[in-house]
Amino acid sequence: MAISARLGYIYVYSKYVDEDENNSRLLAEQRRREFLGLAASYLRERKNLVICPEGASTTSDKSPLPFKAGPFRLAVYVDPEPLLVPIVVVNFDKKITRTILVAQVRKPLRLSEHLCKPIEDRALFAFISSLTAQFREWVAEARKLAAASTLL
């Protein structure tokens, strides 16, 4: 786990870039535990985390990808429970001088508002699927807003 004190980010290793051939399963589990502990400590200190729930980068046209469970498992793990703030961004991969960039901050939510504790995997995955579908609608709305706007 790499931490940047200057920029304040936690680097999350990608299996596609940082895979260790010696014992990839053990290393991946160790990295997950390190991230979970570090991210949880940041949240307990009331620091914000910006996490891409898709777990991968893609183009604006293909966004959003299906959400991964990791960020939501982190929210379940941390006490006090953090707010999840959905942020929709479209045209993020286009030249800023040739497009309309749209970013919308949606209503914050807590998992406990949507799921009963203890949170079971089946319910968590159903919630994630539902939120991904909602996010797709928000992205479509933001795309329409960008298309309806004119460049100066």
- Strand neighbour order, sheet with most strands: 1-2
Query: What's the helix-strand series?
Result: EEHHHEEH
Proportion of β residues? 5-15%
Uncertain segments are none
Q: What is the number of E strands?
A: 4
Radius of gyration: 17 Å
Helical segment count: 4
User: Which assembly state applies to the chains in this document?
Assistant: single chain
Main sheet overview: 2 strands, antiparallel
State the helical fraction: 40-55%
What is the CA-CA span between the terminal residues? 43 Å
Q: What structural category arises from helix and sheet content?
A: mainly alpha
How would you describe the shape? globular
Mean pLDDT: 84
What are the defining features of this structure?
single chain; 152 residues; mainly alpha; two-stranded antiparallel sheet
Briefly say what this structure is:
The chain is mainly alpha-helical and 152 residues long. Helices cover 40% and strands 9% of the residues.
Descriptive notes:
The structure is a single chain. The protein is mostly helical and 152 residues long. The chain contains four helices and four strands, in the order E-E-H-H-H-E-E-H. It has a two-stranded antiparallel sheet. It has a two-stranded antiparallel sheet with strand order 3-4. Strand 1 and strand 2 form a beta hairpin. It is globular, with a radius of gyration of 17 Å. It starts with a strand and ends with a helix. The model has no long low-confidence stretch (mean pLDDT 84).
